[in-house]
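Fold this: Putative basic leucine-zipper transcription factor
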Amino acid sequence: IGRSNGDMSSVSPVPYSFDGGLRGRRSNNAVEKVVERRQRRMIKNRESAARSRARKQAYTMELEAEVAKLKEENQELQKRQEEIIETQKNQIMEMMKMQQGGKRQCLRRTQTGPW
């Protein structure tokens, strides 16, 4: 019948599990499902990355447009500020001319009090 000294060299490991499937290998159908899932996941990931890049590009373009608008507004404000400063300077000069034109002030020597 069999060897009784514990030598199991003639017994090969059973390649089947108890539920009827292969123990160490998946069936072709299961492998195909895994490959198909992986491919679908890769495709979804690429699509998601493409959408993300598109959102980023749109956001960047929006920021660049805002920067251009703010630069233009800044230039207009600086020009307006320069005009206001020039107007104020001219008004001050006119006021000084009017004050000087009305009466001439001369510096006179006076005696100081006794020390």
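The first helix runs from residue 28 to 102. The chain has a mean pLDDT of 83.
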